[in-house]
Amino acid sequence: FSDTGTKPPESGVFGFMINISALLGVITMYIRYLLIEKQNESSYFIGSSCNMFSLCVGLMGCIGMGIVANFQELSVPSVHDIGALVAFGSGVVYITLQSIISYKSCPQWNTYFVCHIRMAISVISCIAFIPMIVFALQISMTKIDWTPDEKDYTYHLMSAICEWTVAFGFIFFFLTFIRDFQVVSLRISTEIHED
């Protein structure tokens, strides 16, 4: 995943786009948090602290994305790897918690079909996350431009496949929020004070 943005000028574009994605992730997670809080007012289905915990875990993942974006894989590998671990680990926990919250809100706020889709994406992401870490730990060198005859190539390839699986899992998971967000409207309140 990070191999696509390690050399200039791609590294600048990669970092910029990941930072934008992290910002959009924060906005999406915050709107989801507010939506659940509002739904909870009319029909209680989840504790507010659980909703807040889910938001905090998601925000940690976005911070991890920022670290990945700003500390390239070849420049500062240890910081980059910590950021990736935080981003992917927190992301997997976030989508799993959101899947559970979705089930709790059925059938009033979600359909079981959407809940099953969310849980399937969460399970696939969790399953891919574990070998991603295991294979990444087997790689003895940090480099770009791998060839199939090199030592650790298979570990690198398998880790990259799992990493992309988890990343696309996050994208598809957020796409399941579209129907939920269609009921959201932005109200701006203006008050006129007369002296």
Summarize, please.
By secondary structure, the chain is mostly helical. It has six helices and no strands. The protein has helices at 10-42, 48-70, 77-104, 112-138, 153-175, 178-181.
List keywords for this structure.
195 residues; mainly alpha; 0% strand; DRAM/TMEM150_Autophagy_Mod
What does this structure look like?
By secondary structure, this protein is an all-alpha fold. The protein has helices at 10-42, 48-70, 77-104, 112-138, 153-175, 178-181. The longest helix has 33 residues, at 10-42. The protein starts with 9 loop residues before the first helix and ends in a 14-residue tail after the last helix. The model has no long low-confidence stretch (mean pLDDT 91). Belongs to the DRAM/TMEM150 family. It is found in: Endomembrane system. The chain crosses the membrane at residues 12-31, 52-71, 83-103, 115-137, 157-178. Keywords: Membrane, Transmembrane, Transmembrane helix. It is a multi-pass membrane protein.
Task: Give the SSE order as H and E letters.
Answer: HHHHHH
Structural class: mainly alpha
Helix content: over 70%
Summarize the main sheet: none
Radius of gyration, taken over Cα atoms and rounded to an integer in Å: 19 Å
Mean pLDDT: 91
Number of strands: 0
Q: What would the principal axes of the Cα set say about the shape?
A: globular
**Binned strand content:** under 5%
The rounded distance between the terminal residues' Cα atoms is 58 Å
Number of helices: 6
Low-confidence stretches: none
